[in-house]
């Protein structure tokens, strides 16, 4: 199997992609026929400290889960997140495919979910590490299905998450005291609002800039806070991240735009509710 020419936005991605392809080719020669990057790497918002490396690996037929498990176990905790698809899958509506093998750092999920964001990101922005360029492929692309999925996801995932985060002693209630929760929720709902407003896809930072242009000034502080945290590239989903986030309010110098993590969490959740409702209105008036 041929190698690849480094074309990614960061040397860290180059190194991890090279390691992955070397292991995959050694474990199952010829298995990975195409490898593409999506997510932050493809959307111009990759942050080496906090970003995952989102990929789509393409095979001629559904690969044996045991082989994939060996590959990803050997990879260890590299921040690779991705899905295994066939060339035929790329031309089909993901809603018709069911579950596919999905990789997470150090492990494999045999029955992972798929969604149209992957197909649309690959078709419009995908970076090629191996195989034909996305524009040379017949990749399923249906704006109406993308919009319908985004509208459903606002409630199925984001509104439920906001409800959990509103409980102070829940895991997400505590996570939202740190920077990670602010970035994840503020930019997450803003990204879906952007998609429903424009029909396009954007990164976390792009979603924050969209929110600053779209939502009332009442919410600019929390959006700027999320953008600051994203650009500083240090907000992690861990206890250490929560502790570090608290230090932003009480340490010297104080870097947060908020005097209290509780005040920030209030605005994170308030903005999310506003953005979710506004995004639903956009979908209903399409």
Short description:
The protein contains twelve helices and six strands. With 286 residues, the chain is α+β, with helices and mostly antiparallel strands.
Structure in words:
By secondary structure, this protein is an alpha+beta fold. The protein has two domains: 11-136, 2-Layer Sandwich (Beta Polymerase, domain 2), CATH 3.30.460.10; 143-284. 54% of the residues lie in helices and 12% in strands. It is built from twelve helices and six strands. The chain has helices spanning 11-27, 39-43, 65-75, 87-90, 116-125, 143-165, 171-175, 179-198, 204-214, 220-232, 239-250, 261-284; strands at residues 34-37, 53-59, 80-86, 100-104, 107-112, 127-130. A six-stranded mixed β-sheet has the order 5-4-3-2-1-6, with helices on both faces. The relative contact order is 0.11. The mean pLDDT is 93.
Give the arrangement of secondary structure elements.
Elements lengths: L10 H17 L6 E4 L1 H5 L9 E7 L5 H11 L4 E7 H4 L9 E5 L2 E6 L3 H10 L1 E4 L12 H23 L5 H5 L3 H20 L5 H11 L5 H13 L6 H12 L10 H24 L2
Parallel strand pairs: 2-3
Antiparallel strand pairs: 1-2, 1-6, 3-4, 4-5
For the largest sheet, list the strands in their spatial order. Answer: 5-4-3-2-1-6
Runs in which pLDDT lies below 50 for 5 or more consecutive residues are: none
Given the structure, what is the number of helices? Answer: 12
**Could you give the order of the helices and strands?**
HEHEHEHEEHEHHHHHHH
Radius of gyration: 19 Å
DSSP helix fraction: 40-55%
* Number of DSSP-assigned strands: 6
What coarse outline follows from CA principal-axis ratios?
Answer: globular
The end-to-end distance, rounded to whole angstroms, is: 46 Å
Q: How many structural domains are formed by the residues?
A: 2
Major β-sheet profile:
6 strands, mixed
